[in-house]
Write a structure and sequence with these properties.
Blueprint (H helix, E strand, L loop, with lengths): L3 H19 L14 H7 L5 H17 L3 H21 L7 H17 L6 H20 L8 H23 L5 H26 L1
Helix pairs in contact: 1-8, 2-7, 3-4, 3-5, 3-7, 3-8, 4-6, 4-7, 5-6, 5-8
């Protein structure tokens, strides 16, 4: 049975996710050419709800899976994302960026919704695959003449914070009602991903 504190945590976590989903139309990822420096790098991952939900979902999924995935997935994503960011910074094209980001929300949300427990290497590979798209999107949005290094440090650091947020929310998984709440949150993330995909294909 859930304690009063655990109910409060679950309620606040769900409220936070619902609030973000309501803001989908206003949080569209439209910051092309506006990134500059460390502070902008910090702010950039939260400029698009597509990025936010996918990164939080990584933390949620890691919390569901438990150790060692709870730390491996949130470490894998920023590391590989930094590589994707480098590709974007040097101008190496990557097709289907927006579709890849949308698919990351769809599939990562689905993993949480289904409490999927694939082999650890497969979970890490899935997270790494999508991290490239997120990183490339960030990298291509650095204006000429600005510090690519400081900007990259900023968006990698904020990504880690978003993963930590997902892990913190995911701790409600230890309670039965919390597990149900997390599955619902995963379904909501996946549904938002279909919206992002529709926008990308429109």
């Amino acid at each position: 049975m859930m304690t009063t504190v655990s109910r409060m945590v679950a309620t606040r976590a769900l409220g936070w996710l619902v609030t973000m989903l309501i803001a989908v139309p206003a949080w569209a990822h439209e910051q092309q050419g506006q990134a500059a420096g460390f502070v902008t790098g910090l702010l950039h991952p939260v400029s698009g709800l597509d990025h936010v939900l996918a990164m939080v979902a990584v933390g949620l999924w890691g919390a569901q899976l438990g150790a060692p995935a709870i730390w491996l997935l949130p470490v894998t994503f920023p590391l590989v994302m930094a590589f994707g960011g480098f590709l974007g910074l040097v101008g190496i094209p990557l097709p289907g960026i927006e579709m890849g980001i949308a698919m990351s929300a769809i599939l990562l949300g689905a993993m949480v919704a289904m409490e999927s427990r694939p082999p650890l290497w497969l979970a890490a590979a899935l997270v790494a695959f999508f991290a490239v798209f997120h990183g490339h999107a960030h990298g291509t949005e650095l204006p000429p003449g600005e510090s690519g290094f400081l900007y990259s440090v900023g968006f990698v650091l904020m990504t880690g914070c978003l993963h930590a947020t997902g892990i913190s929310i995911g701790l409600i998984h230890r309670w039965h009602t919390g597990r149900i709440a997390l599955r619902g949150a995963g379904a909501a993330v996946s549904a938002a991903g279909f919206f992002f995909l529709w926008r990308a294909l429109a």
